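Course assignment 3, question 2. Fill in each field.
Student: A.L.
Task: Predict the tertiary structure for the chain below.
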Amino acid sequence: MISQKNLQRFFAAYVIILVYGMVIYQRNLDFSWIVTGGWDKLHALMDPTTNLMPFATINRYLSVLDRPSGLGLFLYNVVGNMIILIPFGYLMPLAAKSKKALIWVALAGLVLIISMELLQYVSMSGTLDVDDVLLNFSGVLIGYWLSPVSHKRWI
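Answer field:
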């Protein structure tokens, strides 16, 4: 049996690796917008990679499923965005003894996901995509549903 302390350490390591992989790993962080034009410069540079319309990116990947590489793109981008956060939803209620309710897992998941999206945006290291938030959050909820804690407590 894994001790509560080791479970918490494992969960913390998972979150650190997740943020590192989603925001920093193999990415060019660029904060030059701060001194070269401020927020207006950031918005101008990031506008082409920003999606604030729900399901636009998901629909784009669904529309290419009939192409040879379409299934791979769909699995990597859509399914991958869900799978990456399943461990969060599964482990958080186990690691956080006093915060086992779905509402706490959902709120913590949203804070983490939105923080990662905003970090990608301000560091110009990725895209700001509302579909990523939806898919990641779905992963959190799936993980919570798979967690043994979810069958005992919902609120």
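Instructor remarks: The mean pLDDT is 93. Helices lie at 4-24, 33-36, 38-46, 56-63, 70-83, 86-95, 102-122, 130-146.
Grade: pending
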